[in-house]
Amino acid sequence: MDLINELRQRNLIFHITNENKLKELIQNKCISLYCGFDPTEESLHVGHLLPLITLKRFQILGHKPIILIGGATSLIGDPSFKKKERLLKSDDLINKWTIKISQQISFFLDFNCNLNNAIILNNNLWFKKINFLSFLRDVGKHFSINSMINRESVKQRIKRSDQGISFTEFSYTLLQAYDYFILNKKYQALLQIGGSDQWGNISSGMHLIHRASKKESYGLTLPLLMQSNGIKFGKTESGTIWLDPQKTTPYKFYQFWMNIEDDNVYRFLKLFTFIDIDEINEREQNKYKNNQIIFDKTLLAKHLTRLVHGDENLLAAERITNILFFKNIEDIKLSDLKQLKKDGIPVVEIYKIKDLQEALVLSSLAPSRTQAKNMIISNSISINTKKINNKNYTFNDSDKLFDQFTLLSRGKKNHCLIYWNKI
User: Fold this and answer.
1) What is the pLDDT of residue 147?
2) 214 is catalytic
3) Both 31 and 142 in a single domain?
4) Where does this chain carry the motif 'KMSKS' region (predicted)?
């Protein structure tokens, strides 16, 4: 299979070096390739899915993926296209997050398939042993300050009057370059992949390998996953969709993909799934026939929720969706309601039985009791998917699901979960 051509058809290539030679190389032999992940947070996010899935594409064809956890580099923080310097984290916190992220990554790749099983390494293995003066002599001498300053990611920070770039951050590219050099030397890694914002760092690694070892290596970057506001998904940005179910529930993760803009549906099917390109193109041609695009959003949401959270959590996300939008309340489980309480829909805690009008105001489904009364009379309010038109309605014990929760709805799309706190 021509994997490079496949990646191009899926719009997965942003930068690539020596494309024809790399294509010939991976068609004729199995190689080792790597991608780095700095544990600067306790979880990966949806922006990390592209490199992980791309590594999986290589592994399926017999190539060996290497995951490099930046236990050392995360103590510095990559400045690439960041508006300001990261807050430095402690060793203990980085070690804790390293364990969590390694566990997350283990779900995406095969670590027990003989010759091309994936491996996870930590760059602390070599950086904790390195001598500072030796590093400057053996690595620093191969880099020109002039060229480093002229990199776009550095220039943007230097030009900012309110936020320059520290020597700590400026040195980051040398550290990542040394990672590639070590992985090339000891683990025969011939290709590094990463997001398009990593192009400068990847180029530094290839440069160091060429200067210090006289060997050829390759780089490939992927497009960044952007939010609707044009900002990339990142660990320090707002609105992040995390892979950790404790930070973003499977239901909210599922709904994220269900609510993407129509223009992104088929682009994301190409980027994130293994569905045949021709099938995706055919689906796109028929997207406005019989609401095909809705089915295709569901296909995307199912595929990625199963990939990240497994079958059981996918079923839970689908069950909650059916309850909220199709009123199948009899299928609800206590675990579903706990998901919703965590981050699925707005939640309000109530300590004593309240009348419906007050609950609508407390839940922000109505701005006042008068408007709440009008909403009830107009038959637009539901309790646990059952319409209520009694303007003087007062909650009773039968309204409490599992003696803890009540689903309050205004119309079809506005929901709030009441949590009956017994304290």
Assistant:
1) 86
2) no
3) yes
4) 232-236
Residue/partner pairs of 115-118 with CB below 8 Å, 24 or more apart:
115/30, 115/62, 115/64, 116/30, 116/59, 116/62, 116/63, 116/64, 116/65, 117/64, 118/55, 118/59, 118/64, 118/65, 118/66, 118/67
Structural domain boundaries enclosing 386: 345-420
266 annotated as ligand-binding = no
Total domain count, the chain? 3
Q: Kindly name the residue from 82, 157, 283, 297 that is annotated as catalytic.
A: 82
pLDDT tier at 230, thresholds 50, 70, 90: low
Residue 326 CB-density burial (10 A; 0-12 exposed, 13-18 middle, 19+ buried): exposed
Q: Decide if 176 is catalytic.
A: yes
Which residue stretches of 240-291 are H helix? Answer: 250-258, 265-272, 277-285
172 assigned binding-site residue: yes
Single pTM value for the model: 0.87
For residue 350, give every residue at least 6 positions away whose Cβ sits within 8 Å of its Cβ, in sequence order, or none.
Answer: 359, 362, 418, 419, 420, 421
Instruction: Give yes or no for residue 52 having a pLDDT over 90.
Output: yes
Residue 237 has pLDDT above 60, yes or no: no
Residue 152 domain-assigned (yes or no): yes
* Residue 337: per-residue pLDDT: 93
Looking at 333, 365, 380, the residue that finishes a domain is 333
Return the H-helix or E-strand segment holding 382: strand 381-383
Told to judge if 236 belongs to the known catalytic residues of this protein, a careful annotator would answer: yes
45 is catalytic: yes
Q: Which residues pair with 410 in a beta bridge?
A: 381, 414
83 and 165 share one domain: yes
- Determine the straight-line distance between the first and last CA of the chain, rounded to whole angstroms: 62
Task: Calculate helix-pair angle for 265-272, 292-326, nearest 10 degrees.
Answer: 90
From 54, 59, 173, 176, the catalytic residue: 176
**Co-location of 315 and 393 in the same domain:** no
Q: Does the annotation mark 235 as catalytic?
A: yes
Q: Which position among 45, 297, 309, 415 bears the catalytic label?
A: 45
Asked whether residue 351 falls in the same domain as residue 327, the answer is no
What is the Cα–Cα distance from 181 to 284, expressed in whole angstroms? 43
Per-residue pLDDT at 234: 53
